[in-house]
Amino acid sequence: MANSTAKNGCPAPFFQDTLFTQGGFVEGRLCSVVTPELTCCLPCPMTDWAYPDSFQTVGKSAQWISVISTVCCVFLLLSWAALPVDKTFRHYLSISLTAAVTLMSLGFVIPLASRPDQCFDAITPNSMQTSSVCAASGSFLIAGGWAGVMWVFLRALSLHLQICWQVVVGRNFMWFSQAVGWGIPILGVILAVVLSGVSFRFGSTCHINHKNSLADLWVPLLVFSGFTIIIQFATFGYCIKVYLASLADNSASTEGSGLPSYTNSIRTMTPKQAYRRVRRVIELQWRGIAIVLIIVTDVIFFSIVFVFQDNTVEAVKHDQTIAADWITCLFLSGGKKEPCLSKASALVVNMPTVGAVLCLLAINGIWLLLLLGRWSMVTGWRDIFLNLSGRNKREFVSVDARLDDLKKDTRSYEMLSRDSGKTMDESVTQFVVTPLSPTAKLPLRSPSSNRDSTASNNDGRRTPDYFGHTARYHVPERSFSSPRAPQQTVTWDARDMYARQELPAQNDSYVNPLAMNKI
Q1: C-alpha distance from residue 327 to each of 3, 47, 201 (Å)
Q2: Could you tell me which residue ranges the G-protein coupled receptors family 2 profile domain spans (predicted)?
Q3: The dihedral sign for the CA sequence 315, 321, 325, 326
C-alpha cells in the first residue's frame, strides 16, 4: 500500500483516477476531490468496503436459492406442457406468471454459473458494454420483474372481474392479457437498457444505473404494483361486504341452492346466494391470491430498498461531507475496513435488509411450486416413466395357462381379445403335433368314434379334443336378435273371444239371472 500511495498521491486504500482509463462504467466510481489536481477513488467493488466479508456469503446463498427456484419453475412448465389437463389444471395466467419468475431467477443464476469479474479496473465497475454476463443478468432481472408485476396485475384484475362484477373472462381477455403481459415488459426492458443501462452496483448481479431509472423502471413498476394492491383490496372489501350482508339475510328462499333461480338475473341474487358464489370462487382462487400478494410485496420491497441505496450513493458522490467520517476512518486505519463499518452503515442499507430482499426475490419459484403445484403432477410423471421403462406393458401369459383357463369351462364362447382384436380361439397357439405323439398316426374321426376309441387307447397319452370342433349355433324360435320373415300368419277374430255364447233353445220361459250377462 505504501508503494501505491507513493505512485497515486492518494492515501491507502484509495487510488488516483488519472492513472486509469475511461473504460467500464465510469459513473459507477466513488471518488472524492481532495485538491483541484487530485481526485481519489474508492477501490472496486464498493460493497467490499461498506459491508463485512459475510456479505458475499449472503449473495451466494440468494443465488443458490435462485437455482432451486429455477428448477421448481422448470418442473411446473414441463408438467403443464407434457401432462394432461386433469393432472395439472393448467391455466395461461399460471403458466405466464411462472415463466416471468423463471426469467427473474435467471438474473441471479447466470452470475453464479459464469462467476464474472465485477470490476473493469481497480476503481471502475463493469457495465453491459464491457461484460456480456452483466448485460444478460441485468436484462433477465428487469424482464422478470416487469413480467412478474404485469401478470400478477392481470391475475388480480381477472379475479376482481369474476367476483365483483360477475364477468366471465374468456378468450378476449386471454388475448388481451398476452398482449399486455408480454408487450409492456418487452417495451420496459428496451427503455431501461437504452436510456439507463445496467452495471455491477450491488453484488455479482447487474442492476439498472441511476440515470433515468426512476422514469423508465421504478415509477412504472410501483404504479402497476399499486394498481394491483388497490384491485386486490377492493376485491377483499367486496367479499367482506357480501359476508356481512349474508349474516343479516334471514330470507327462507336462500336456504336451498346457492345458485340464483332461472327467473332472476345474477345481479339480483340474494345476499346469501352471493356469499355462496363468492366463497366458491375464493376456494378455487386462494392460491392465486396468495401468489399475487407475495410477488407484489417482493417487488415493492426490492424497489424501495434499491432506490434508497441508489439515491444514497448518488448523494455521496455530489456531497463528500456525507461520507467524510467514513473516508477519514479508512485513511487513519491504513485501509482496514473493520474499524469503519459502523460509520459506513449510515451510508448503505444494512446487511439483514439486503439479505432479506435478495432471498425474497430468489424464493418466488419455490412459492409457485407450493401453491400452484399438485401431487397429481408427480403421479403423472411417474406414469410416464413407468410406460417408458415398459413396466406397464401387457403381462406375458403362457399358452398352457390359457388352455387351463379354457378347460375349466368346456362351453364354447367366442370372445374378442383385448389386445389383438382376435377371437379367443385364434389367440390360442395351435396344437403342434410332434413325431413323438401317438396322435400323429391316428386319422381324424368323428366325435362319436373318438369317444369309442378312447377306451381302446392303451398308451394313455391321448387327450380328448374338446376344442377341435365348433358347435353349431341354432337360433331359438322366439329370438329377435336379427330380423327375419314371419314363419306363419297369425290372425285374430273377435268373435272367438268376445262373441256371445249361443244358449240351447229352451221351451220354458225361465231366465237364469246369474247367466244373463255372461259373456
Answers
A1: 20, 14, 19
A2: 55-219
A3: positive
CA distance 81 to 377: 11
Phi and psi at residue 39, to the nearest 5°: -125, 125
pLDDT digits (tens, 9 = 90+) for 256-308: 444 444 444 445 678 888 888 888 888 888 998 999 999 999 999 999 999 99
Task: Give the strand order in the sheet containing 31-35.
Answer: 15-16, 38-41, 31-35
CA–CA distance, 242 with 10 (Å, rounded to integer) = 70
Contacts of 255 (CB under 8 A, 6+ apart): 272
507 CB-side CA count, 13 A: 0
Compute how many other C-beta atoms are within 10 angstroms of the C-beta atom of residue 225.
21
Residue 207: what are its φ and ψ, rounded to 5°?
Answer: -125, 165
Q: How far apart are CA 198 and CA 200, in angstroms?
A: 7
Helix then strand then coil, in percent of the chain rounded to 5, is 60, 5, 35
Q: What angle do CA 458, 460, 464 make, to 5 degrees?
A: 115
387: phi > 0 → left, psi -120 to 50 → alpha, else beta; which? alpha
Grid coordinates representing 88? 395439472
Q: What is the pLDDT of residue 266?
A: 45
The DSSP bridge pattern shows strands 15-16 and 31-35 to be unpaired
Q: Distance between CA atoms of 375 and 384, rounded to whole angstroms? A: 15
Residue 35 pairs in a beta bridge with 38
Residue 35 main-chain phi, psi, to 5 deg: -135, 165
Q: Is 35 helix (H, G, I), strand (E, B) or coil?
A: strand
The confidence score (pLDDT) of residue 267 equals 52
Maximum C-alpha span of the chain? 166
- The radius of gyration of the chain's CA atoms, rounded to the nearest angstrom, is 44
Closest C-alpha among 137, 135, 78 to residue 113: 137
If one counts every other C-beta atom within 10 angstroms of the C-beta of residue 456, the result is 6
Contact 347, 14 (CB under 8 A): no
What SS3 string covers 348-374?
CCCHHHHHHHHHHHHCHHHHHHHHHCC
Mean pLDDT across 53-60 = 91
State the pLDDT confidence band at 468, using cuts at 50, 70 and 90: low
Reported as a single tens digit per residue, the pLDDT across 99-130 is: 999 999 999 999 999 999 999 999 999 999 99
User: Distance between CA 282 and CA 232 in Å, rounded?
Assistant: 12
Q: Please compute, for residue 260, the number of CA atoms within 13 A of its CA located in the half-sphere on the CB side.
A: 15
The per-residue pLDDT for range 227-255, each reduced to its tens digit, is 999 999 999 999 888 888 888 876 654 44
